[in-house]
Amino acid sequence: MNEDKLLKTFGLNIKFERQKAGYSQEQIAENLNFSTVYISNIESGKHSISLINAYKFARFYNKTLDYLLTEKS
Length: 73
Description:
- With 73 residues, the protein is mainly α.
- It has helices spanning 3-21, 25-32, 36-43, 51-61, 65-69.
- It has a single domain, classed as Orthogonal Bundle (434 Repressor (Amino-terminal Domain)).
- Helices cover 70% and strands 0% of the residues.
């Protein structure tokens, strides 16, 4: 999987988890101490993310990094 596809997949997965949990981007930003612009850019696959921040998302949603990085069919 190329880098662009990986970023898009991660973004789609965290957006799905956020919506499934009923959170707004603002609520996630507040909980994880990120800006809403950062959340939006990550969810749209426009911004690269550090391993530490990816782990924060995984921990928040109680998912593994592998789950958040895997394409869903």
